Amino acid sequence: MMTPHRRLRCKDTMMRHSHPHRLTLSRLAGRGFTLVELMIAMTLVGGLVAMIYGMFARTSDALIDVDAMAGATDEARFALEMVRNELQSAGSQATPNATVDPWVRPNDSPMFGLIPYEGWQNSREIYQGNATLQAIAARNPQSAFSGVVVVGAYDFPQSFLISEVRPDGGRVENVERGMGRLTRIDPFDVSADSAVIADDTDPRALALTEAASARGLRISDRQGYMQFVPVRQASISSGALELTTAAITFRGEGRMTGLESIDGAENDYDAAFLDAFWFRVRVDPFDPTNLQLVRHRLNFGPLMALNSPTQTQLEGVIVGVDDAEREANTLVIANHVVDFRVWFDCANAFGALEPTPLASEWEPATGACLTPPAMGSQPHQARVAHLRLSMRSENERTNRPHFEVAGDADWLGFQEVEGTMQTYDVDPRNPGAASVVTVQSSVDLANFRMRGL
């Protein structure tokens, strides 16, 4: 018979034999992991982390690219809308072509609402600055740039009454149709209240005087005849604006051109200010790989003296006596521009629109009615302006290859090289390219069509 003590020992022995893994786990817990086990674990964990990081990096990169393209799209739309608005105002309070306008006396001055210049359309000369730009040009053969000079009434689009007109100027009196049109009915709200601008020391006077010497002046008589003259100087005294201008011609004995002569003190005429702006693409002064769409304010007087301007001549009439002043009169509309095109639908001798490639696709055509030299051009025949602007994202992406095109090669579904761009190679030394967004718009040149010259 088994004693209680013996039965307990036997039971303990049976339990140990029935659960041998308890001993193994106890031994493993005591001795830890081997080096091979640690290496395998680290490899697995590293691979998992790499997969997670790769997914995160790709997602983050895509989000950054989408955000950059959204910003470029907004900037491109804003820039194109600005150019569109000022093209729509081309010739406002002015004339499409002074040489053929029967209401301009004298009409021998080359005053145009649109001024063409040599190489104004589809130029690639901007790439000739240095070796880097030339290399970029070689990698982006379908990239080109247009430019256009627009003359019209922008800062002060309404007309006003000018009195005491003389051969070298006139006076805008402090009346509702005079200074009231320039201050109290100012669409840009220059005047904070209806108080009279007493003199040049008033901060509100700057809008009228600081850019006056770069502006032009349109004067019309009671018969509707117009004359365009540059403004030399402007000052405010006792609430009135005193203007000094280039020579104003009056009709008189034996003279059939000029303004109607009005005897007496109340020689009032209708007048309007004119501004001249040059839209073009230039190289960023601080970054040679960044191309900017800019708007220069031009000096109206020297501009009128240019019969067939070149780009160099236009650079010489940007308002300012030095680089700092010229830069102050330059507005950067958009950065990272890779393609900017302007072309026009023109009317023929019967007033009907000529056929255009726009009927089948957005392909820039040569603007025949704006072909230089200016004296041989017919800008008054322009009826519709077409704009196309392409802009790139700020940075290249190494996982986005650059698609080069040549000849008639198919390119991402576009059969023509002149199709909208998809990628732009900012740095040919590195792999990858920047994404590109393209916006386009058309604008009816209302003043040109209305006058029907």
TrEMBL record:
InterPro entries: N_methyl_site, Pilin-like
Keyword vocabulary terms for this entry: Membrane, Transmembrane, Transmembrane helix
KW Transcription regulation (keyword) present: no
Pfam families reported for this sequence: N_methyl
Chain segments annotated as transmembrane: 32-56
Keyword Repeat: no
Protein name per UniProt: Prepilin-type N-terminal cleavage/methylation domain-containing protein
Native species: Lujinxingia vulgaris
